[in-house]
Design goal:
609 residues; alpha+beta; Heat Shock Protein 90; Ribosomal Protein S5, domain 2; Ribosomal Protein S8, Chain: A, domain 1; 3 domains; 8-stranded mixed β-sheet; 5-stranded mixed β-sheet; 24 strands
Length: 609
């Protein structure tokens, strides 16, 4: 048998490496932005067309590259960041592997222009599929401009796996925001299809957060700060009342590098114990400063996962710092065990004159007429103590019940036992969650939220079939402000949202105005409904258009349905039951979970033995 193991051609090896590093347009954006930061840039521009499939361009004013460096950066494992393995545990830069530019060049057409401050003339290099097609001097400002055109032009299978433009654009914006949050001293801008999405001026972290996620975030944040021998922690956590139904603005940075860590996320969640509603998530922007030798960032090609030398201590410090911050700003409930609550009186106003009470003493028993007589004593500011004359004591008993408490209880029970059959058949609510209703064969227990979800979902589906949802116009329109990322996503699906039952239009940058709503949408829940739709849309990027619309309809039904804990009147429960059984599929919610369970008389009799 002959030899069968051979070295791969460089072009094939580069494409394989590109598959690990450049998974989508956002991956290329991340690598280019981090290279600009490592180059010492104070101004970075990101220009994107067609969600990065046609063009990704990053322009910076960093230190630039010489002609030789410009050519070497396209070689695999060529880097200026490290020279030995020991330096892997003392990294202060974003990049270090020397794979980014080689991987990008393997799957795209790249044009680079760069100039250093020492040179009067810059260098231009063009590549396509790892091959240099052009290299010549050019006029260029100090810094580097890299244009990536027709990403995955030579790997059509990879290009076919890309999601919709809205989804890919959202991933690009996520990468941009991560770099922008970690480097608030850098001026950064993002243009997409000739629209300016962000223009961020240098400033402090709080201002950068507000610029990225909207003005409303200023009041939602609580600062967090802790410094130990293991790590320094700074940043902000969100107030519990602003927690959202989706994991949106949650960021960890270690030495200004964005990371993902479910373990540390659990530390934050546990610090919010008993402060959050079920299935809601707080925002946080946490920055760790750790000695580089205490962490290992070379465990994943995308460098978004790191290993701490003492992860348990980091967990404990983060949880404690978060809890302390919430308590310091009177968000976390506290109990003073040194104070007797029964003695916790508020001081009277200064202009109120205090009088010592004069209690009359009776020689007889304190009960009966004299006791009632004493209790009836009143006082006014101008008149001294007043008491009714002894001859009026009968008036004290006017209006009092003639029956004893025991007699009243017997009367109440008798009245309950004499109710008519119609009253017994009325539905009954249990714990603000379930509706109990009798049927001929026994009884049914209905989950009120799931039942309403099914009702609203079928109303939405019917509206989609008619291509028009019945809307009620509002006298006072509702303004909704979103982050730039959410605004971009919503703008791309406005037609779908309007079909779902919202008369909504853009109203300035990152602001939308809602003129009317379908009858099944509560006006108070508009923002939550939009958040749910955006979350569902971002998660369903790979689905077909019809499947995606169905997911959006389910999301709207979830947020538009009544919540657990809402007290319903008998008439409301009856209407809910009638509408549920008028549905095509009344026995399950859109999620597939049951809306009701039935207990027959036979089952009840077996339970009682």
């Amino acid at each position: 048998m002959g030899d069968i193991i051979r070295l791969l051609p460089d072009s094939v090896a580069n494409q394989i490496a590109a598959g690990e590093v450049i998974q989508r347009p956002a991956s290329a954006v991340k690598e280019l932005l981090e290279n600009s930061v490592d180059a010492g840039a104070t101004k970075i521009q990101l220009i994107v067309a067609d969600a990065g499939k046609t063009l990704i361009q990053v322009i910076d004013n960093g230190k630039g590259m010489s002609e030789n460096d410009a050519r070497m950066c396209f070689e695999r494992h060529a880097t200026s960041k490290i020279q030995s393995a020991d330096q892997l545990f003392a990294l202060t830069t974003k990049g270090f592997r020397g794979e980014a530019m080689a991987s990008i060049a393997a799957v795209a057409q790249v044009e680079m222009k760069s100039r250093t401050e020492e040179n009067q003339i810059g260098i231009q290099i063009n590549t396509a599929g790892s091959k240099i097609t052009k290299q010549e001097p050019c006029q260029a400002p100090v810094g580097t401009s890299i244009s990536i055109k027709n990403l995955f032009f030579n790997v059509p299978a990879r290009r076919n796996f890309l999601k919709s433009n809205q989804v890919e654009t959202r991933h690009i914006m996520d990468e941009f925001m991560r770099v922008a949050l970690a480097h608030t001293s850098v001026e950064m801008s993002l243009h997409h299809d000739n629209d300016e999405i962000f223009h961020l001026r240098p400033g402090k972290l709080r201002q950068r957060i507000v610029d990225l996620f909207g003005k409303g975030y200023n009041e939602k944040l609580v600062p967090i700060s802790e410094e130990t021998s293991i790590a320094k922690i700074e940043g902000f956590v969100g107030k519990p009342e602003f927690a959202r139904k989706r994991r949106g603005e949650q960021f960890f940075f270690v030495n200004d590098r964005f990371i993902r860590s479910p373990y540390l996320n659990h530390a934050i969640s546990s610090a919010y114990d008993e402060l959050l509603a079920q299935k809601t998530y707080p925002a946080y922007f946490i920055f760790f400063t750790v000695e580089p030798s205490f962490i290992d960032i070379n465990i994943h090609p995308t460098k978004t996962e790191i290993k701490f030398e003492d992860e348990k201590s980091i967990y404990a410090i983060l949880r404690s710092a978060t809890r302390q911050s919430l308590g310091k700003y009177n968000i976390s409930p506290t109990i003073d065990f040194n104070q007797e609550m029964s003695l916790n009186f508020s001081a009277p106003p200064k202009n109120v004159q205090l009088y010592q009470p004069e209690l009359p003493v009776s020689s007889g028993t304190s009960y009966g007429a004299k006791g009632a007589h004493s209790a009836a004593i009143t006082r006014t500011r101008d008149e001294g103590w007043q008491k009714p004359s002894d001859g009026d004591w009968q008036k004290l008993y006017e209006g009092l019940p003639q029956e004893t408490p025991i007699q009243q209880e017997i009367t109440t029970v008798q009245s309950k036992l004499s109710v008519d059959d119609e009253t017994v058949k009325r539905p009954m609510q249990i714990h603000g969650k379930y509706i109990l209703s009798s049927i001929k064969s026994g009884t049914i227990i209905i989950d009120q939220k799931r039942a309403h979800e099914r009702i609203v979902y079928e109303q939405i589906v019917q509206s989609l079939a008619l291509q028009q949802a019945p809307k009620q116009q509002h006298l006072f329109p509702i303004n909704i402000e979103l982050s730039s990322a959410d605004s971009k996503t919503l703008s791309g699906i406005l037609d779908d949202v309007q079909l779902l039952g919202m008369d909504i239009e853009p109203f300035g940058k990152n602001t939308f105005i809602v003129q009317g709503l379908a009858t099944y949408i509560n006006e108070k829940n508009v923002k939550e409904v939009i958040d749910e739709i955006l979350e569902e849309y971002n998660e369903s990027g790979s689905l077909t258009a019809s499947k995606k619309m169905d997911k959006l309809a389910q999301a709207m039904a979830r947020r538009s349905s009544i919540d657990y804990g809402k007290v319903l009147q008998p008439e409301e429960m009856t209407q809910l039951i009638d509408e549920l059984f008028a549905c095509d599929l009344p026995y399950s919610a859109p999620s597939g979970k049951p809306t009701m369970i039935t207990m027959t008389l036979d089952e009840l009799e077996k339970r009682f033995g």
